[in-house]
Amino acid sequence: MLTRFKNEAKKLRGILYHRLYTSKRSEKKLVEDFNKHYYDSNIFEGTWRNTYWLKVPTFKCPLDLWIYQEIIVDMKPDWIIETGTARGGSALYLASVCDLVGHGQVVSVDIEHKEGRPTHPRLRYFLGSSISEEILAKLHALIPVGSKVLVILDSDHSQKHVMEELKAYSGWVPKGGYLIVEDTIVNGHPVAPEHGPGPMEAVDEFLSKRKDFVIDASKEKLLVTFNPRGYLKRVE
Predict the structure, then answer these.
(1) Confidence tier at 212 by pLDDT (50, 70, 90)
(2) 216: Cβ–Cβ under 8 A, 6 or more apart, which residues?
(3) 160 and 131 in a common domain
(4) Are the CB atoms for 205 and 163 separated by under 8 Å?
(5) pTM of this structure
(6) Is 113 found in the same domain as 10?
């Protein structure tokens, strides 16, 4: 009897807590506030710019990287295309996950060469603009037709550039696969309000013209993400 009473009391406390503290409105504000705090704390304390994978700088939110490995394990892509390399930490991370899965290759594209980027048997780098004819031709020559491709966009964050990337790379993604648009968090969503139209606005423009991709909100389940509304799943 006492055990039953304790269980009922615990359940009641949970219900009261949910109603008092985690309404949809308060939860959304809490998540947005923490996202802003985490993102902006980088300036003084070092958060996402002080994150490493195997000692290589990896300018990502770790909770997004966790979602990436879940997608890779489920999708088992033949190829992962990443635009925007920086120091190469995320490219190495993606190659490492492919190693664990036992399948997949990574191509990371950037306009800037940086010495000391990590090497890995599953990883190669292309130097050039992600939307240039030269780079797109090299990718088409490398990746066989019909390959399962996961695309992650993280280069120039202007709306125009991201929109060009979406048009150029969406065709590689198979039905059930993902095209991830990073840093949709900027331009006041909710950080960096001064940024100007960027990845989020490109996503909205893209989806207004395409019905074969939808936002997969389930990939935001860990609440803190740099890619709100940026996990696009191909459904047709």
Answers:
(1) very high
(2) 178, 231, 232, 233
(3) yes
(4) yes
(5) 0.90
(6) no
